[in-house]
Amino acid sequence: MSAAVTQENGLDLAHWMQPMLADIEQALSRWVGVEAPEQLGEAMRYAVLDGGKRLRPLLVLAACEAVGGRRDAALRAACAVELIHAYSLVHDDMPCMDNDVLRRGKPTVHVRFGEAQALLAGDALQALAFELIAPAEGEAAQVPAAMQARLCSLLARAAGARGMAGGQAIDLASVGLQLSEDQLRQMHRLKTGALLQGSVLMGAACGETGDATREALAAYGAALGLAFQVVDDILDVVADSATLGKTAGKDAAADKPTYVSLMGLEGARAYADQLAQEAHAALARCGLADTRALAALADQVIRRSH
């Protein structure tokens, strides 16, 4: 995420983010790849450390804070969701998928380590995500077993066939096709939105919430997740590779349906703004005392430049 100072209802977002990001980076460095064989561990750490916006873990921590939840459980959940995101990028960049050579401003994992190590690194990161939220006995005894099970369920659903993996399958099948707005929205609700929404719900699961609050937070996460993809499509057109840290213009080159190709640039921008308003409206009805961090993160998604 950008480090620019954002004031939302008295919240200095950059100041709020600083200790959160420090805890996330320290935990990831402590947990990722340390017990793996040397080359595999190096590939895992290369995929995760020293790059990325960390939006998903920040959403976990912000939602946990909003519900007054357990910070120890939330930090594990935050790192877990970032590992799922990182593994998906490693696999998406491979020649059998998007065949990309640049990610987070550096060569992709398969370019740096070879396809076999990249495949294994992604597999290992996915497994490690679940190890973190359901660790061996004694490693996180303070986190109730029921909470661990709930976090595993939310993460599995967000990442699997009814979430991110399912959306990616639809994306691959849609190359060269004309999709309707509803079809494009459904694809991205799964491919991108499910993990972002899951991040919010995992943070909320680290505390106690009522049904109405969970439903409102789910609506916030859904709107935010879709807004992120709309902005991603816009940036793929208007930004350069150096700014994005990945190959610009690759969606058009691959003849993939996007919000810009469907709505035009200005139409896509207007839709992103509409989704941001929907996210704020959901927060307004969630009944929580302080959702400033979640609100500021939604605005940051709309304003991001990479």
From TrEMBL:
Coiled coil: none annotated. The keyword Cytoplasm does not apply. Keywords: Isoprene biosynthesis, Magnesium, Metal-binding, Transferase. The keyword 4Fe-4S does not apply. Its cofactor is Mg(2+). It comes from the Bacteria. Belongs to the FPP/GGPP synthase family. This is Polyprenyl synthetase family protein. The lineage of its organism: Bacteria, Pseudomonadati, Pseudomonadota, Betaproteobacteria, Burkholderiales.
